[in-house]
Design goal:
The complex is a heterotrimer of chains A (282), B (294) and C (378). In chain A, 39% of the residues lie in helices and 23% in strands. With 282 residues, chain A is an alpha/beta fold. Chain A folds into two domains: 194 residues, P-loop containing nucleotide triphosphate hydrolases (Rossmann fold); 80 residues, no CATH class. In chain A, the strands form two sheets. Chain A has a six-stranded mixed beta sheet, sandwiched between helices. In chain A, a hairpin with a 2-residue loop joins strand 4 and strand 5. Chain B is mainly alpha-helical and 294 residues long. Chain B has a single domain, classed as ABC transporter involved in vitamin B12 uptake, BtuC (Orthogonal Bundle), CATH 1.10.3470. In chain B, the strands form two sheets. Chain B has a two-stranded antiparallel ribbon with strand order 1-4. Chain B has a two-stranded antiparallel sheet with strand order 2-3. The longest helix of chain B is centred in the first third of the chain and has 34 residues. With 378 residues, chain C is mainly α. Chain C is built from 15 helices and two strands. The two termini of chain C are 17 Å apart. The C terminus of chain C is likely disordered. Chains B and C meet through helix 4, helix 9 and helix 11 of B and helix 6, helix 12 and helix 14 of C.
Chain lengths: 282, 294, 378
């Protein structure tokens, strides 16, 4: 069970002189729940954005199920400004810069730190629309209802997803009218609708109380089993991270400072320093 | 020498038109810098200034009419902002842009009503309208005055923005609208000041422009307006020197194209330039890069 | 189960309403004088309804603020005029006075209209490649720019053998030349416009309610989320742009048929603004709104507010009413709508039979009972 699903090698994201992610290398194995933690502004979401194709990293490569999906090395102006390491390793590799939808198509789905549901759509339509990518249809068959069977299948599957999340009673409400916790759930349901193998959760428990957080943890375990998922999440709630994740990576100022099991991380002086020494609100 | 004699009138006209465009483009670039709004009505304010001049000079001496035109145009710009844009401050950007298009439609239709759709002859301004000869090229004196006046005004404006309190507030608001508001800057007054300056420059631009072209029609604001917006984008929207340089380039290029006998395409060229710029360097010559946060 | 029943009922209602509408139109056309202003308004209204709905598909449903509609109508109008013009006319001096027409064939009305749409769509595809990567207002100004370039292109001297330069196009197959298939009987022109527009709008509505329509709305609501859920932004934007232009082209062709003559100079940005204002008045994101608004707009413009232009109607000796006053009043009304009723007539809602029935239900049973019923259902 130690097969790599996701593998980052020397991923660096530099905005001008600011190095947001610095030579980040990590692995996520099939069936694991891996957490990425770090103080605010450590570059966690930027790392996610590099994986999902939102940003083009300045150096390094990302592979998914053994295939390189993102790769780059410093070019042009960046050559001079580049502050990371190992760039010569990737010089011979042709840069791969996919758009986010291509990444999603490969089987990586994500949620967002600041919830990004489609505002004008109902709960049902939010999930249904995410099914669009994998539907077997084209604009002609869809418009003239030739692929009506496909549409019916999408609707049934959407209904099943909503049932699983206990969202059926809200299905005709506007997505943004849901309470915060349910909106996060809906985002997960929407991500699941794209039929992913790897799910990236960006602070799924943000704004939840301890009880809701616990429930969320159970829920994540549940969908992991049911859909045979691998989960990689950013989280600040230490209870959730320590209780549910198999392994943890800690980054600070874009750099990996520790990795290991929850127990190892809790005992790691570097981590404590990063959290207590730099910020005092965690 | 023959070549110079043939092409000089076009280049001179280009520099002159460029200066007039620059004065209008500043209005676009300042408003966009602060409100992120393409003020579609700005070209029509420019046209309206021309109309005011036509009607006022008919009954008043020029010495009274010109200052009055400037004042009325400024008032028009101020009122447009207060009535059509201020109520939509928190509305989506698309609504404000639609409102701007509505204002443009309104001003054009008003002009149509008052003129009966006929082209109005622009009054001859003494001294400015006089014909002069430079190196064998015949032109109006306004051709020479425009670039000089433009540069003086632009330098004045730059100093104003750099050293006065209002100017500083303008820079702050264009950097970050919300934060500036939280820091106690009276955002609405700053915006009004922007529209006042923009309209004033547009009025001066219209004096120079129509002296050159001799007639005003209700639609004569549209095309120069769009071109000046293109100039502002070309120079990097939000940047005043950028807008001025962009305007001169467009003015000169357009007249060279006319000189080559491609008059049909002189307008189209501007837009082709715009599209190329947007694709190659969307932030223009001096624009700042903005990134979306995910 | 109840929902499905309602759906069936709504379908029947719509069918009945459509048949009634077409029957009424037919009776009117057979009995009334064809020069009546009512027909002008109906024809122009339905042509504008189509282009407004096509613009709404872009601006309202895909969130692309595009101002190129007049340009695509221009392509449609010219393509139609050129293709449908009889060869005899092309060879004579009556239209192509200064050029030798390069198009040596003619097509029927329907093929010409379809090709008008197709050519507009092809242009849109090419223009979309660079332009659709731009953001909101830059996209607006770039599409506006392309429409201007198109206009210059069609008026260009070198294009003369095809487009007749800046001169007027006429004597092509206009609305009076439409016949019932396989016969020589004239097809009622207003009915024809309604039929073509109706089919086109129905296709757009089907598209909007399909999986692709949902993807468009997702892009409008949040591009980043749409992309992250596997919706290819460029592909879908391009699709929306091309489809919208296809229908703009068809409405351009119909406008050419309706006007008897067509000239590139007519398709200025002011025309796009008018279409945009129709969309806004109707409600951005509402197809029914766009349709209603375009009839209102055209009726006011061509008919109901005409009296404002007649100086004979002045009262109290004021010299207020004269040519052009109508447009001033009109634009003031539009500004009021834009500023105070920014949702327009319909907001982003569509016409629904349910609401009509509810309304009548309340009317007949009284308000009190209706309220009781609602609480009883719960």
């Amino acid at each position: 069970m130690s097969e790599n699903v996701l593998r980052l090698e020397d991923v660096t994201m530099q905005f001008g002189g600011v190095v947001a992610v610095n030579n980040l290398s990590l692995e996520v194995n099939r069936g694991e729940i891996v957490a990425l933690i770090g103080p605010n502004g450590a570059g966690k979401t930027t790392a996610f954005n590099c994986i999902t194709g939102v940003y083009e990293p300045t150096n390094g490569q990302v592979s998914f199920e053994g295939k390189v999906i993102v790769a780059n090395h410093p070019t042009g102006k960046m050559k001079k400004n580049y502050q990371g390491l190992n760039s010569e390793k990737y010089l011979h590799i042709k840069p791969v810069d996919p758009t986010p939808d291509q990444i999603t198509k490969l089987g990586i789905a994500r949620t967002f730190q600041n919830i990004r549901l489609w505002k004008s759509m109902t709960v049902f339509d939010n999930v249904l629309t995410a099914k669009h990518m994998r539907a077997k249809q084209n604009v002609f068959t869809a418009t003239f209802r030739i692929s009506a069977a496909e549409e019916r299948r999408m609707r049934e599957e959407t209904m099943a997803l909503l049932e699983e999340q206990n969202l059926v009673q809200f299905k005709d409400d506007l997505a943004t009218s849901l309470p915060y916790g349910l909106q996060r759930r809906l985002e997960i349901a929407r991500a699941l609708a794209t039929e992913p193998k790897l799910l990236l959760l960006d602070e799924p428990a943000a704004g939840m109380n301890p009880q809701e957080t616990e429930e969320l943890g159970q829920f994540i375990m549940q969908i992991k089993e049911k859909y045979d998922l691998t989960i990689f999440m950013i989280e600040h709630h230490m209870d959730l991270v320590m209780k549910f994740s198999d392994r943890i990576y800690v980054i600070d100022f874009g750099k990996l400072i520790a990795k290991g099991t929850p127990a190892e991380i809790q005992a790691n002086p570097k981590v404590i320093e990063a959290y207590l020494g730099v910020t005092d609100d965690e | 020498m023959q070549f110079l004699q043939n092409s000089l009138p076009y280049i001179l006209a280009g520099i002159s038109v460029g200066g007039q465009y620059a004065l209008i483009a500043i209005g676009y670039t300042m408003v966009y810098g602060i409100l992120r709004l393409i003020n579609f009505a700005h070209g029509d304010v420019f046209m309206a200034a021309g109309m005011f001049m036509v009607f006022l000079s008919a009954s008043l001496p020029l010495g009274v009419a010109i200052p009055l035109v400037l004042i009325i145009t400024v008032a028009l710009g101020f009122i447009i902002e207060r009535v059509a844009y201020k109520p939509l401050r928190s509305a989506p950007r698309m609504s404000v842009m639609i409102s701007a298009i509505g204002v443009s439609y309104l001003i054009q239709n008003c002009a149509l009503y008052f003129t009966g759709g006929l082209a109005k002859v622009y009054p001859q301004l003494p001294w400015l309208s006089d014909t002069i000869t430079i190196w064998g090229a015949v032109t109006k004196r306004v051709t020479l005055v425009t670039p000089v006046l433009t540069l003086v005004l632009v330098i004045g404006l730059s100093l104003f923005i750099k050293y006065t309190k209002v100017g500083m507030a303008m820079r702050a608001v264009s950097k970050d609208f919300e934060t500036a508001r939280l820091m106690g800057i009276k955002v609405n007054s700053v915006i009004s000041a922007t529209f006042i300056i923009g309209s004033l420059l547009a009025a001066i631009g219209s004096l120079l422009y129509f002296t050159n072209y001799a007639s005003v029609t209700p639609t004569s604001g549209g095309m120069p307006g769009l071109k000046c917006f293109v100039a502002a984008v070309f120079g990097g929207i939000g940047s005043i020197p950028g807008a001025v340089i962009g305007a001169f380039i467009i003015g000169i290029a357009e007249n060279i194209i006319k000189g080559l006998g491609w008059t049909t395409f002189s307008d189209a060229f501007t837009f082709a330039l715009l599209i190329v710029i947007l694709l190659v360097k969307p932030t223009g010559l001096f624009g700042e890069k903005a990134t979306d946060k995910v | 189960m109840d929902l499905r029943k309602n759906k069936k009922r709504d379908g029947i209602c719509t069918a009945v309403a459509l048949i009634a509408m077409f029957a009424l139109l037919l009776i009117m056309e057979l009995t009334m004088k064809s020069t009546s202003i009512l027909f002008t308004v109906l024809k122009k209204g339905v042509i504008y309804a189509l282009v407004a709905v096509s613009m709404n598909l872009l601006n309202g449903f895909t969130g692309l603020f595009s101002l190129g509609q007049a340009g695509f109508m221009l392509i449609g109008a010219y393509t139609y005029a050129i293709l449908s013009m009889p060869v005899a006319v092309k060879l004579s001096d009556s239209v192509y006075k200064y050029y030798d027409c390069a198009i040596g064939f003619e097509l029927g009305i329907i093929p010409s209209m379809l090709l008008a749409g197709v050519i507009a769509a092809i242009f849109a595809m090419l223009i979309g490649l660079p332009v659709l990567r731009l953001k909101s207002d830059y996209l607006a100004i770039a599409t506006l720019g392309f429409a201007e370039i198109l206009r210059a292109f069609f008026q260009w001297d070198a294009m003369g053998p095809v487009t007749n330069g800046a001169n007027v196009m006429r004597q092509y197959k206009d609305l009076t030349k439409v016949t019932i298939p396989f016969t020589d009987i004239r097809f009622p022109p207003t009915l024809f416009c309604f039929l073509v527009s109706g089919i086109c709008i129905a296709i757009i509505v089907l598209l909007i309610n399909s999986s692709y329509g949902r993807a468009f709305k997702a892009i409008r609501d949040d591009e980043i989320a749409a992309e992250a859920m596997g919706i290819n932004l460029f592909k879908h934007k391009e699709m929306s742009f091309v489809i919208s232009s296809f229908f703009a082209g068809i409405s351009g062709a119909m406008l050419a048929m309706f006007q008897y003559t067509v000239q590139a100079a007519q398709f200025k940005s002011a025309m796009t603004y008018e279409i945009l204002l129709i969309v806004v008045i109707g409600g951005i994101g509402s197809v029914t709104g766009s349709c209603i608004a375009s009839f209102l707009f055209i009726a006011c413009n061509e008919w109901w507010l005409r009296f404002l232009d007649e100086s004979a109607n002045n009262i109290l000796g004021m010299n207020l009413l004269r040519s052009g006053f109508r447009k001033v009043v009109f634009s003031v009304v539009i500004m009021i709508i834009v500023l105070f009723f920014s949702k327009g007539i319909m907001g982003d809602k569509e016409f629904s039979w349910q609401r009509i029935f509810d309304f009548f239900h309340k009317l007949f049973h009284g308000k009190k009972q209706a309220v009781e019923e609602v609480s009883g259902n719960e």
